[in-house]
Specification:
By secondary structure, the protein is of the alpha+beta class. It has helices spanning 3-33, 72-78, 137-140, 202-205, and strands at 34-40, 44-51, 54-61, 69-71, 83-89, 92-106, 109-119, 133-135, 145-148, 153-156, 170-171, 176-182, 185-190. It is globular.
Amino acid sequence: MGSGKVRSIFLIAVLVLGVAHADAKTRSKLDVNALPMNVFSGYLIVVQASIGDGHALNFLLDTGATTSAIDLRLAERLGLDTRSSTMVNFDKTVQVQWCVLPELDYGPERATNVKVVVEDLRYLRTGSAAVDGVIGWDLLRRHSFRLDFAKKRVVFGAISTAELHSVPFRESWLCLAVPVDLDGLKLWMVADTGMPGATFYQPQLE
């Protein structure tokens, strides 16, 4: 076998190993930045989170919730001090009970000293599992993330749109909105993972 052919085979082997190593690194990075999710009723996204030593808590991931929340029974169990005040929740100001979580971990994400609403979340029960809290837009907007429904995971971190379809969006501390065309009428709609369908406000359609 000629030396030139040996060098060619060696180069090809190095390239193949290099690509395989790069793919392994990419998968490893995705795994590190990924958080498994369960989907109930076709749209409700539930992930595992922890508050201090309270592991394996069920939290609803809700892009339509302006402020994160925990269930009042969990707040009592953790001995958290609650206070009363008014708070803006999407399109209205409401009277709420709230507390401060010293830390909240979900996947690779960690938030400290988080102000959350304290309320009865039994209405969010998914099948046989109770929902302990809601990770709202106030926390989700801090970093880029992708909802991978095919692999049932949330991937945090920078996202490449080279092979993805994308749309422009507007985001603020209040909500995430995307543009839609409704029979020629240009509208901005809130992207809400906590809703099963589309909801329109009559004044915006007139």
